[in-house]
Automatic annotation (TrEMBL):
Organism for this UniProt entry: Tepidibacter formicigenes DSM 15518
Active site, renumbered: C260 (nucleophile)
SUPFAM superfamilies assigned to the protein according to its UniProt record, in alphabetical order: 6-phosphogluconate dehydrogenase C-terminal domain-like (SSF48179), NAD(P)-binding Rossmann-fold domains (SSF51735), UDP-glucose/GDP-mannose dehydrogenase C-terminal domain (SSF52413)
Similarity field: Belongs to the UDP-glucose/GDP-mannose dehydrogenase family.
Name recorded for this polypeptide: UDP-glucose 6-dehydrogenase
Keyword annotations from UniProtKB, A to Z: NAD, Oxidoreductase
Pathway noted in the entry: Nucleotide-sugar biosynthesis; UDP-alpha-D-glucuronate biosynthesis; UDP-alpha-D-glucuronate from UDP-alpha-D-glucose: step 1/1
Length: 433
């Protein structure tokens, strides 16, 4: 099939390379010229396992093109995926402006039948909104159908997830469009749910809100563990053995971040408000997360009372490992709070220092984990990068002054910490003094 993907970010780029791998011709339309130049040269614009190889294969076989030429993309394609951003507005509602702009931009190019697919995460009613907008813009209703096809990929495992996801959700109100999208996804051999657009749109929010709630729940249990001397790992393991609960998303830490969970939880609360539904559970999950993501700062204040002038090392700036995405990363909130309290910050991340420099230009960044630690009083592990779990604690002791480690992702081996006699705080696994 001939496919156009509008938006070449995390979702659009993965959608493009995977559909091209599956034998389709893909035109990915992106408005950022720098991204287009890099991608056409085979240089990935995001860090994602397997992307480099897949991108270059697609370019070599000429089954993918990156361009800013929307007219060409729309004219040459049967199916048009919209994968632009839907960030939160200041009050937590979903900002639909990028979607609206895309629809306004493509309207004059739709002269024959196209299936327009909302892959972006959009509120209930968005499929109807897009249809209405196209008609208001003068597009003949016979020339299009709009389908909702939310994306569930995880950053860091995006290509794998796109190819082997747990389910594909297609919300449609047209058998013609359904058949086309069904054919497109058939080779993936993934359970596919065909439903109404409203149901599809809500499935995405329900999934992300549920997973976020699970994380906040285990974090509350973990915080209690620290107070009563219980062990969160054993609790998570025991909980996860119950098939009704499942072991996924039971790892405690300093909360969820990224471009989806924070915005989609508040997004669902706002959608609920619009229809008179008060999402008390999701609101609480958000509140717990707001507490959890700056928990290390509270722990530091308990320890030192005053942290003005203290040198604190922040290890890990991305919201999780295996990605370069810093959006809504807990480390951003921690750095902000520490700076307010007058701490001196040294930061290290194997992937994302350049991005975070734009937000905090005045803190010190390092290319090497151990150089970062020199003369620091405390280290906060914010991301579960593998190199942090392998850290040599003997070197840590030499580099730092009386080290206090706050392990925000529970990556260190407690036995090694005990052996090295290090002051250590973990999320629900113990407080070693
Ligand atoms: P992103 O910000 O990485 O990418 C969006 C891209 O769209 C940017 O490159 C931007 O330049 C481009 N763009 C915006 N307007 C454009 C236009 N008019 N024409 C061409 N290009 C345009 O965002 P993302 O993380 O890929 O997320 C996209 C959507 O997918 C969001 O709704 C998000 O909630 C959803 N989603 C994201 C993930 C994830 O893990 N990132 C997972 C599932 C769903």
């Amino acid at each position: 099939m001939n496919i156009c993907v509008i938006g070449g970010g995390y979702v659009g780029l993965i959608t493009s390379v995977v559909f091209s791998k599956m034998g389709n011709k893909v035109i990915c339309v992106e408005k950022n010229i720098e991204k287009i130049k890099k991608l056409n040269k085979g240089i990935p614009t995001i860090f994602e396992e397997g992307l480099n190889e897949l991108l270059n294969k697609s370019l070599n076989s000429k089954s993918i093109l990156f361009t800013d030429n929307l007219k060409e993309g729309v004219n040459k394609s049967d199916v048009i995926f919209i994968a632009v951003g839907t960030p939160s507005t200041k009050d937590g509602n979903v900002d639909m402006s990028q979607i609206t702009n895309v629809i306004n931009e493509i309207s004059s190019f739709i002269n024959e039948y196209k299936v327009i697919v909302n892959k972006s995460t959009v509120p209930v009613g968005s499929q109807k909104y897009v249809k209405k907008l196209l008609i208001e813009n003068g597009v003949n209703p016979k020339n299009f159908d709009v389908v909702s096809n939310p994306e569930f990929l995880r950053e860091g495992k995006a290509i794998y997830d796109f190819l082997h996801g747990d389910r594909i959700v297609i919300g449609h109100d047209s058998e013609k469009a359904k058949d086309i999208i069904k054919k497109l996804y058939e080779p993936f051999k993934i359970v596919t749910i065909f439903t109404t657009p409203e149901t599809a749109e809500l499935i995405k929010y329900a999934s992300n809100a549920f997973l976020s709630t699970k994380i906040s729940f285990i974090n509350e249990i973990a915080n209690l563990c620290n107070k009563v001397g219980a062990d969160i790992d054993t609790i998570s393991y025991a909980l996860g053995l119950d098939k009704r609960i499942s072991p996924q998303f039971l790892k405690p830490g300093i909360g969820f971040g990224g471009s989806c969970f924070p915005k989609d939880t508040i997004g669902l609360v706002k959608i609920g408000e619009r229809y008179g539904s008060d999402f008390k559970i999701v609101k609480s999950a958000i509140k717990v997360n707001e507490y959890q993501r700056i928990l290390p700062v509270k722990v530091l204040l308990d320890e030192y009372k005053d942290i003005k002038g203290k040198i604190i090392s922040i290890l890990g700036l991305t919201f999780k490992s295996e990605t370069d995405d810093i959006r809504e990363s807990p480390s951003l909130y921690i750095i902000e709070e520490l700076l307010k309290k007058g701490a001196v910050i040294k930061a290290y991340d194997p992937m994302a220092s350049n991005e975070i420099k734009k937000l905090f230009p005045d803190i010190q960044y390092f290319d090497n984990l151990y150089d970062t630690l020199l003369d620091s009083s405390s280290m906060i592990i914010c991301t579960d990068w593998k190199e942090f779990s392998n850290i040599d604690l003997e070197v840590v002791k030499k580099k730092m002054k009386n080290p206090f480690i706050i392990d925000g992702r529970n990556v260190l081996d407690i036995k090694k910490v005990e052996k090295n006699n290090i002051n250590y705080y973990s999320i629900g696994k113990g407080y070693i003094k």
